[in-house]
Design a protein that fits this description.
The protein is of the alpha/beta class. 33% of the residues lie in helices and 16% in strands. It starts with a helix and ends in an 8-residue tail after the last helix. It holds the Pfam family AlaDh_PNT_N. This is proton-translocating NAD(P)(+) transhydrogenase.
């Protein structure tokens, strides 16, 4: 975003933007130039900032001493991370920034998850055959939609809040019991299935086979009562947990909607087709990929603020000098050799 450029140039940083980089967010090259950047080839810069993980061809453009920052999928793109390491590139993966209070301003996972959670509800509302709010009209009273959110991290919490604002009757479920209070704080009910799978770093752990079976059965019973189910459950480095079985979909009322935000890692619903909207048992199942890209203005604005804050942490007198004594930089640098 052009907005952050003056704060960087003030610190002595020269900003080069690839031609057309902002077009997806309706930002013309001129806006970057007016903010103090130049348009050119960013691949020769000391620091290269991207959104999506680099392609193999992009990795090949980088060499010793350069720094790369972006979503680098460090748990899934092992070959690329290996290639970056071998080339002597210092790579910082925003996914690996620790979820600690001090790092909230840098937390790109959260900023993008907020966009996804919000947009998932709008998608559900537009696919639904029913209203979200209760309506009392001369033609009769319409009951509010019942909305269940499975997996209440950042995206799930935003989905609950957005569905509530639209007038839905909301319920949240997660395997981390600490989430119950957060769910209630956005006016939703907490669905308690008695499974505690809190893992490390605030993330969930994968369930045992026995817990999975118990969870699927309990959810199958619960899901029947909802008009809309939004799923966001993820376990770092693992395929998305299967929460909604085919039988659970079959049990839903015709016209109900499932929005599965876990499509990139296989989906939380057994009948999800990642990237597609399909109708199964008269239930619409949407699994949009990269939802933040559908709201490019605010997604870009938030991401650029995250990146500016990360760069600021690495700059000393306008020079790049990351201090790996800082947990945020140590954890997010995925190409550094760490002594055992
Ligand atoms: P995530 O995207 O990794 O997962 C989404 C949710 O799915 C999580 O709440 C997880 O518990 C849940 N989940 C996983 N397996 C499940 C299953 N089998 N059934 C039901 N739910 C399941 O999560 P996230 O949004 O990235 O948040 C991860 C953590 O980071 C949370 O504890 C969040 O509060 C924390 N966080 C902290 C900060 C901060 O303090 N700086 C900022 C953002 C997030």
């Amino acid at each position: 975003m052009p907005k952050i450029i003056p704060s960087l140039t003030k610190q002595g940083v020269e900003v080069v933007v690839e031609a057309g980089a902002g077009l997806g967010a309706l930002i013309p090259d001129d806006a970057y130039v007016a903010a103090g950047a130049s348009i050119g080839d960013p691949w020769s810069a000391e620091v290269v900032v991207k959104v999506a993980p680099p392609s193999d061809a992009e990795v090949a453009k980088l060499s010793d001493g350069q720094t790369l920052i972006g979503f680098l999928a460090p748990r899934n793109a092992e070959n690329q991370i290996g290639a970056l390491k071998a080339a002597g590139v210092q790579a910082f993966a925003v996914e690996a920034i620790p979820r600690i209070s001090r790092a909230q301003v840098l937390d790109a996972l959260s900023s993008q998850a907020n966009v996804a959670g919000y947009k998932a509800v709008l998608l559900a509302a537009s696919e639904s055959t029913r209203f979200f709010p209760m309506l009392t009209t001369a033609a009769g009273t319409v009951k509010p939609a019942t909305v269940l959110v499975l997996g209440v991290g950042v995206a799930g919490l935003q989905a609950l809040a957005t569905a509530k604002r639209l007038g839905g009757r909301t319920t949240g479920y997660d395997v981390r019991p600490e989430v119950a209070d957060q769910v209630r704080s956005v006016g939703a009910q907490w669905l308690d299935l008695g499974i505690d799978a809190a893992g490390e770093g605030g993330y969930a752990r994968e369930l045992t086979d026995e817990e999975k079976a118990k969870q699927q059965q309990a959810l199958e019973d619960a899901i029947k009562g909802f008009d809309v189910v939004i799923t966001t459950a993820l376990v770092p480095g693992r395929p998305a947990p299967r929460l909604v079985t085919a039988a659970a979909v079959e049990g839903m009322k015709p016209g109900s909607v499932i929005v599965d935000l876990a499509g990139e890692t296989g989906g939380n619903c057994e009948l999800t087709e990642p990237g597609q909207t399909v109708v199964k048992h008269e239930v619409t199942i949407c699994s949009p990929l990269n939802l933040p890209a559908t709201m490019p203005e605010h997604a870009s604005e938030l991401y650029s603020k995250n990146i500016a804050a990360l760069l600021e942490l690495m700059l000393v007198d306008g020079k790049l000098a990351p201090d790996f004594g800082d947990q945020v930089l140590a954890d997010s640098c995925v190409t550094r050799e760490v002594d055992a």
